[in-house]
Amino acid sequence: MSVTLDDIRAAAGRIRGHVVETPLVRDEVLSARLGQPVWLKCEYRQATGAFKLRGATNAILSLAPDALARGVVTASTGNHGRALAHAARALGVPATVCLSRLVPGNKVQAIRDLGATVRITGASQDEAMVEVARAVAQEGMTEIPPFDHEAVVAGQGTLGPEIAPLTPDAVLVPLSGGGLAAGVAVSIKALSPATRVIGLTMENGAAMAASLAAGHPVEVAESPSLADSLGGGIGLQNRVTFAICRDLLDDAILLTEAEIAEGIRHLGRAGHVVEGAASVGTAAMLAGKFVPQGPTVTILSGANIDPALHARIMAEAA
Predict the structure, then answer these.
(1) Which end of the chain is more exposed for a tag (fewer CB within 10 A), N or C?
(2) Which helix H or strand E contains 125, and what residues bound it?
(3) Residue 222: its pLDDT value, please?
(4) Do 11 and 116 fall into the same domain?
(5) What does pLDDT average to over the chain?
(6) pTM of whole model > 0.90?
């Protein structure tokens, strides 16, 4: 593995004080319905509303002073950009975030509010990454990728040791570029080898799931989704996350938009206002696409949903 448990433990020490250990909360309704304990890892309670703060903080704290002085740049579907902007501001480092036109306006504004320069370009994350490459080559900025980077994966992996003491039968992880899934899989498989790690994503535009099925990284067309954070390609030259996800994930499950919406509604009724990407584990259990065989943890990855959209989804249940 290009990322090890030792890397993850080092990352945990590095980011201590910059992120919080989020709570594990039992979903009593789902536990009763399914006959197995279901735990929610409430990662949306990070300062930036998503798990991405772990990886971005570890990556930026791993940089040499000269790299920081040149400023950092990234492409993002929203949450990584917000996390990087937050970490950069805390260290007084200039940050530029490249976004596609598919990124929701509330996420764009949140990044601007943290003082980062925002560049909106193209209709996909892959097109936004072209602007990142130009900024690195022509402006000398230092790239911190959203997922395919050892320090980012190690940072996301710090979630694992917070879950492993439960020795769950399964951990359900939102699956996009694979930074979270890879990091959690490395730590969980090292600390609780019998635990299954399952990736969850949307049916349309799921690049990592398509790549795993093909046996190599592939491109997919992006389309709007309630799980917008799970959009974007994994990169045809993917160095880190594809191999780890291929070797360590036990399964990848795809969800329809209606199933994702039902996951959002279920969690909203329990007081967890989360985005579509955070609901996919819950959605899979509600839809019967994942049936717990023992204690199960699902990661609520982020809360950065447009309030009007959340209200509309909740109203549809009435």
Answers:
(1) C
(2) helix 125-139
(3) 83
(4) no
(5) 95
(6) yes
